[in-house]
Amino acid sequence: MSSVLELKGIEKSFGGHPVLRQVEFALEPGKVVGLLGPNGAGKSTLLKIAVGLLMPDAGQVRVFGEPPSWQSLARIAFLPDRGHFARGLKVEAALAMAARLYDRFDRGLAEAVLKDAHLRPGTRLSELSRGQEARLHLALCVARHPELLILDEPLSGLDILSREAMVETVIGTVSDEAPAVLITTHDLDEVEGHFDEVILLQEGKVVLKAEAESLRVRYGSLRQMYKEVMQP
Ligand SMILES: Nc1ncnc2c1ncn2[C@@H]1O[C@H](COP(=O)(O)OP(=O)(O)OP(=O)(O)O)[C@@H](O)[C@H]1O
C-alpha cells in the first residue's frame, strides 16, 4: 500500500539555525499518528513542510506519491496552530466560503461538529472564544472529508468538554472514513489512547518512531514513555 505522506531527509534552518535535521517518516492510510516533542522541537515547521506551506532546504516530500501541489492540497485538511481566518468574517460566511471552495464539503457534518459550541451564524470570528474558534476550524477541516487530516495542537486552550468533543469528532471521522491523521499535541492524556503510531521529535531530529501499542506495553502509557525518553 502506498504512503499517504512520505518525508525523506528533510532539513530546514531559519537564519542559519537548524530546526529540522534529516527527518524521515511515512504515514500510511487510515493510521492515526502522534507527532510529539517539546516546545521548539520543529513540529509545526515539519507540518507546514508536509502540506507545502514551507519549502525544506533539502529532502523530499511526497503526498499521495507526488510532490505537494494544489491537487494534493485539495485532499488534505490542515488545522494550523494559529488561526489564519480574516477576523471580520462571520461564522455563516466562513461555512459558505468552505462550501464554495471545496466540492466535497459537507455542511451538515460541519453543523454537527459545531452543535453545542454556542456559535451564532452572525458572530464575527474576532468575537469568538478561543474554544469556539478551534471548534469552527476543526469543523471546516473534517467536513471536507479529507484523505489526510493534519492537526497542529487541536486541543490547545480548550475546556474539558470541548476537548472531549474535539477528540470524539476526530475519532468519529477516523472510524467512518479512515483518513490518515497526523496530530501534534502536548495534551497527551486525551488522545494517547487513539494513536496507532508515535513519532518523537527532539531538537529537529526524530528520536523515536514506534507503534503506540508496543510503547504502551513497554512503558505503561505514552505519557510515561515521553517522560522517560525526554528526561533519561
Ligand atoms: N518563520 C520562522 N522564522 C524563524 N524561526 C522560526 C520560524 N518558524 C519557526 N521558527 C523557529 O523554529 C523552531 C521550531 O519551531 P516550531 O514552531 O516548528 O516548533 P514546535 O515543535 O511546533 O513548538 P511548540 O510545541 O512550541 O509549538 C523554533 O525555534 C522557532 O523559533
UniProtKB/TrEMBL annotation:
Superkingdom classification of source: Bacteria
The catalytic activity of this protein is classed by the Enzyme Commission as: 3.6.1.3
Q: Which PROSITE patterns match?
A: ABC_TRANSPORTER_2 (PS50893)
Start and end of every ABC transporter domain? 5-228
Gene Ontology MF annotations: ATP binding; ATP hydrolysis activity
Q: Which organism is it from?
A: Acididesulfobacillus acetoxydans
Q: Which UniProt keywords apply?
A: ATP-binding, Hydrolase, Nucleotide-binding, Transport
How would you classify this enzyme at the top EC level?
hydrolase
Q: Which InterPro entries does the record associate with it? A: AAA+_ATPase, ABC_transporter-like_ATP-bd, ABC_Transporter_VariousFunc, P-loop_NTPase
What protein is this chain from?
ABC transporter
